[in-house]
Amino acid sequence: MRTDLKTRTRVAVIGGGQNCEHDVSLASAASVAAALDPEHYEVVPLTIGRDGTWHDRGQRPIGLSGAAQVLRGCDVVFPVVHGPRGEDGALAALCELAGLPYVGSGIRPGALAMDKWATKLVAQAVGLATAPGRLVTRATAAHLAWSHPVVVKPVAAGSSQGVTLVDRPAALRPALDAAFALDDRVLVEDVVTGREIDVAVLRRPDGSLLVPPALEIVVDGLFDYDAKYGGHADFRIPAAVEEADAKALEDAAVTAYEALGCAGVARIDFFLTDAGPVLNEVNTVPGMTEHSQAPRMFAAAGLPYPDLLDELVRGAHR
């Protein structure tokens, strides 16, 4: 735990957000705020409403100018806004422009990782396998014909919202419509047969990387929004994988983390197939309640949730 400070560090914890992950972000931010050690940290909560309005600790609307005044009085910003206008580098950009130290990945990795198509291109460039897929826009969607089972997903939405498994021709158009409701670009990927394995990576304050035991997601069907947050999935830590597979997953996760330029915690999601790991996506602001996947993995490695948060604050961008 933190023992080097004479006075408490003021940490602005930002939750909410103007996107479909608003409620998930609120839960993460509330959990972070409650778990930061009060002996060493003074938490200053800020919330971004669904309409984009900033609110203070008492949920009074203060606007961006008021939020800027609050942020200027803090030592570190801890953004916990998942999805667009948060995880995609938007809040990192605000902090960079204001000269504020902040937790997590910077502008470029946030934007790249949030864009699933860009993530695929980066992964392929560094030798990581990804599911065969194509980028579809509203202009090209009319020419897309179903020929085999695919997964349809928004390129940059988050929380598995708008993701549909299409296993028959009649389901393709509704799936595209659901994805286009959240994004103007859609990814159509081949279905990958394999075990769903998550790997977390943390860059510690000294620059070293910590990779805890992997987590396996066991679910009946697609790991969609309802499965993820409705308690229908079985998270198994550590994942029961062979030593060679565990090494391959760790190496692939670190390769993706470094190639994208991530900082703080990132959760890298894979399908483990007979041919090895296939990258699914990278989350630079993963769920951050104590019971979320990444914190549970670090707890299994002997790093309890409050200590994980302490590591993140001490490793903030300066």
UniProtKB/TrEMBL annotation:
It is an enzyme of class 6 (ligase). Mg(2+) 1 binds at residues 269, 281. Pathway: Cell wall biogenesis; peptidoglycan biosynthesis. Pfam families: Dala_Dala_lig_C (PF07478), Dala_Dala_lig_N (PF01820). It catalyses: 2 D-alanine + ATP = D-alanyl-D-alanine + ADP + phosphate + H(+). Its cofactor is Mg(2+); Mn(2+). Mg(2+) 2 binds at residues 281, 283. Cell wall formation. Belongs to the D-alanine--D-alanine ligase family. This is D-alanine--D-alanine ligase. The lineage of its organism: Bacteria, Bacillati, Actinomycetota, Actinomycetes, Propionibacteriales.
